[in-house]
Amino acid sequence: SSVSVSRVGGGGGGRAGGGGGFGSRSLYGLGGSKRISVGGGGGYALGSGFGMGAGGFGGRGGPGFPVCPPGGIHEVTVNQSLLAPLKLDIDPEIQKVRTQEREQIKTLNNKFASFIDKVRFLEQQNKVLETKWSLLQEQGHTVTRKSLEPLFESYISTLRRQLDSLVGERGRLDSELRSMQDMVEDFKNK
């Protein structure tokens, strides 16, 4: 960083003595602009006077003074091996396995979502059929209850079997998904 110091001062006085003065110091290049002002004055005068002066120096150095350390500037050595780029070789097999795992997880998630949709659809169909059944019973149609009941029970049992199958498949897919996620975690930890 660059450091510059400047001082501006002035003062005056008269025949009987006394006087006053002011000063300003600025430090630039120490992480922004830092300004230190120092001032003071007093006394008495029968006459008046005015003076002005300026001077300064600048250079490179640290936050302390003097700008150049005792004994001069020392030579800087650079370790060239630290400047060489790091060789971070990634095993292409691991990348391939991770890509395959991601694809398998995506496929399993899609299957799982479709099974959930099927279960919801079957549950809705079941509710619709139950509603229709209760309406038919309330209206007292000429069709006898005994002739419709076996049909509905057969259809409901078929829907329940499908639902049980889907729930079983869902459990299997859940465990397979957890297994894949554990494998992914193992590869991440390696």
From TrEMBL:
GO terms for biological process: intermediate filament organization; keratinization. SUPFAM superfamilies: Intermediate filament protein, coiled coil region. InterPro entries: IF_rod_dom, Keratin_2_head, Keratin_II. Keywords: Coiled coil, Intermediate filament. It comes from the Eukaryota. Signal peptide: none annotated. Pfam families: Filament (PF00038), Keratin_2_head (PF16208). One of its GO terms (molecular function) is structural constituent of skin epidermis. Residues 1-22 are annotated as: Disordered. Residues 8-22 have a biased composition (Gly residues). Residues 101-190 form the IF rod domain. GO terms for cellular component: extracellular space; keratin filament. This is K2C75 protein. It comes from Campylorhamphus procurvoides.
